[in-house]
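Private note to self, pasted from the team thread so I don't lose it. Backbone tokens:
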């Protein structure tokens, strides 16, 4: 893996949010591998849904798989049988394609998904704080591994603030068909 040492050695403080499900199309495979490895090194559980090589694939297939896992209640750590808490398996998803845009559009077609394309850390943190984003989309042709890791760190390090933002997120969810 071609990850610069300063990125690999960074101390990561991330909210304890369970595992991460990650996927990419053919354009995003190298960046997805780097991010998955860095997440594992940071102590996170990672489920890699592919793609695993450069063979041409259709990004919506991967976006919908990630969306399904992120929005299934037992995968989000919601109440299990008889009120017992289920293990938080996949509360967040990370999708990588050439620009991040296609993955975001496809993922957002799924109820309960709030996917955002970010190319810098501030937007990633604010998407979590104010929009309760649960899927981060990255463009492999837009950001390199170092910046992508900064974005992932920012996304996972903060929690949704709730309050007036919860009311707004609820309005987004009600507007879905």
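Design output:
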């Amino acid at each position: 893996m071609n990850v610069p040492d300063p990125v690999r050695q960074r101390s990561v403080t991330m909210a304890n949010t369970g595992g991460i499900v990650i996927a990419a199309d053919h354009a995003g495979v190298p960046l997805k591998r780097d991010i998955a490895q860095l997440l594992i090194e940071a102590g996170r559980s990672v489920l890699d849904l592919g793609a695993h090589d450069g063979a041409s694939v259709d990004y919506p297939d991967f976006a919908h798989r990630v969306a399904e896992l992120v929005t299934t209640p037992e995968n989000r750590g919601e109440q299990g049988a008889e009120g017992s808490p289920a293990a938080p398996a996949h509360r967040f998803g990370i999708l990588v394609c050439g620009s991040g845009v296609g993955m975001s559009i496809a993922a957002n077609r799924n109820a309960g998904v709030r996917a955002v394309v970010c190319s810098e850390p501030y937007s990633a943190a604010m998407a979590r704080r104010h929009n309760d984003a649960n899927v981060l989309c990255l463009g492999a042709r837009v950001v390199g591994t170092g910046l992508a890791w900064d974005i992932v760190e920012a996304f996972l390090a903060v929690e949704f603030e709730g309050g007036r933002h919860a009311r707004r997120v609820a309005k987004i969810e009600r507007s879905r068909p």
